[in-house]
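Quick one, T. Sequence first:
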Amino acid sequence: MSDKRITTVNRCLESLSKNNIDSCFTRFEELVASSGLFGLDDRYQAIRDDYERMVNYWKQDIVDPCLDQICSRITRRFADLLSEYTSRMLNNEDACYLLSLKNTSERKGDSWDWNDIRQKLESYVVDSAFANLNINDGDKERYEQIVDDHYEYSKRLFYHLVTSGLITKSEADEIIGVLSSPTIDSSDQQIIVSALTMSGSRAFDINKFRIMAEACRKATDMRVRQRALVGFALTMGHGMARLFPEQQDILNEVMSDESISNQLLELQMQLVLCVKAIDDAEVINKEIIPGIVSNSRYRFKDGRLMEDEEDGIDDIIGNNNEEHRAEEVERLVDKMKEIQKSGSDVLFSNFSHMKRFPFFDEMFNWFLPFNSSIKFVRNMSCPYEDLDIFNKMFFYNGYCDIDKYSFAISLDYIYKKLPKEFLEMVKSAHDPGMDLPEETPTLYRRSYLQTLFRFFNMFKWKNGFFNPFEINRDIGHDDIFFTPVYVFFNNPLLITTKWYTEGMPRIVLFLSRNVSSMLRLHSDHISFAMVDNYEGNMAFAKYLINVRHRMITASKCLKRALMFNPDSKVAKKMIANCLMDDYPKEACSYFFELLEANPDDDSIRYKAAYSAFLADEYEKSKSLLHKLHYDYPDDDKVNLLWGTVLLIYDDYGKAFAALDSIGSYEGLDYDFHFAYIVACWISRKRVSEVSSCLKQKKIDPKVFLDNYTQYGLIKFLAQKLKENGISQIQLMLMYDWLKEGGE
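Structure tokens:
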């Protein structure tokens, strides 16, 4: 969500962090005048009175030795009030959706004392276990009733926690005990973690942050620990350590565990891959799937998938492309596997169409670990337990829980419509060939992140929360660190740690290699605290090149990297490439330096020739290109440059031969379009033949208009035309002819 009220709250926190309490009062009262206090009138007035009392004593020259501590307590109380205010304000979003859930959860008369909650959760484990043992003795209905009652209780608990404001330290201690207890069901622990994550990400709560920190270290179940680690990152706040100094101590304790600090680094990369899901889905749906279908022998006919038994025209004339089609299908399948192997969410788009059932209108269900015992699954008309190919899907750890529910409900919906022949075939398919992946922290964390990403992209009433995958509010107190929540590693809390120093180059390099449309959109809001060493400067330069397209700034980082590693061939090549367009002479000097050190590297030789060409040092370029053309006579890049340089030296025949070997000029710089025009016209003379050649090579007619600008190489080549009797009038006539189709 985006709201000026949230911006005001954060500006209030900014004032508090600078001990400017009076400014905070002024800002907050402007907000209260338009929005009200949501029942916090007494708490606010008490803070106001204590502050004024402190100021009045000070004005009377009464020196209080505890003045700093009193001021700090008032600041802390005000910060807590702002968090509580934010939670209550957000409960009213989406026509008071969350407020209605809160009220509903309170009507049942449940006790939300954590001793009572713990007893209730432990009782469920015992009762359900005994009832399950007696299912064969006719106790199935009792077991199902226990499961259903607990589902409703868990839902109320979830809504109570999601809509709650701040919790106390004693409550936090009790919750940590619940989350680390082996006598409580893992699903309940996961639900509690998710609820506190959603609540803690709305408004900073030091105790919820502490719960996440403790749970990711002490929870006995791997799934709980991984949800808590995600919660740890998303409830961190931004710049809050100035108001809550103990936050740094909590962080340091977590980061002292090397395995968790490594997982946190991996989590950052997984969050980046989450926002890439939309781009990956586009590649899959627009390139991979259509390609597989078009190269397959299967076609949809009369609403059914059938093998195409008709011979195509290629088969009839003896030009069998079956092998080629098979290779193309294999290539596309491998590409999809590669995308999935990288950690990308390849199922996001396909499963998004299965979130339209009433089950997904209930917010709680989005965070519910998959459970085949709940009524939504156990009452399925489809006997999926007897269908190995489907049953295995529900226990396949590669799918997130919400997608498993999608699949189950969709399967139930279409089961009765499936042909009997198909069902018999499925029943006989006992081994679907789906290997169950190993249960690892990486896998569980990825599945949970996919659930979160789906929730924030598809759930109807989510405006009471801040989407961590979007820039949707002023979350920072320092503009330099104004960054989307999913790029949490640049949080001020982390940048002074050894973890940041060691991890920043890896993460920034990862960002530069996994550029998505969303990341590019957010790039102006992502700044980094530089790690000033070779690796840090190299990684940041790569990010500037790939994401921000800031070549000159990147070249400065690369030159800084050379100070740490003067012999770096990679850094020098990157600098030269960055400078090629704007400072070709400097780029040329770098490439020639590299060529001297690597005389057999033809890729550097070509770059040196190209940079010399751009720097108008044609003699240098020609000498390098002569060898390249001899060694690579059929290389398009070499021929393009070689032919253009030959024009400069009036060798029109050889120039045309080289330039004419290029299949098409579509997408190439206009300078090369014009070079081909010159070589072709001077060599072929006849305008009809010239027109035919230009049309065949897809020369853009607009290039003729550039002759009017008379700049650089085009100006030089235009003079060559004039020297050969081809005037500007003729150029315009050719432009008109090509524009009309060149017939």
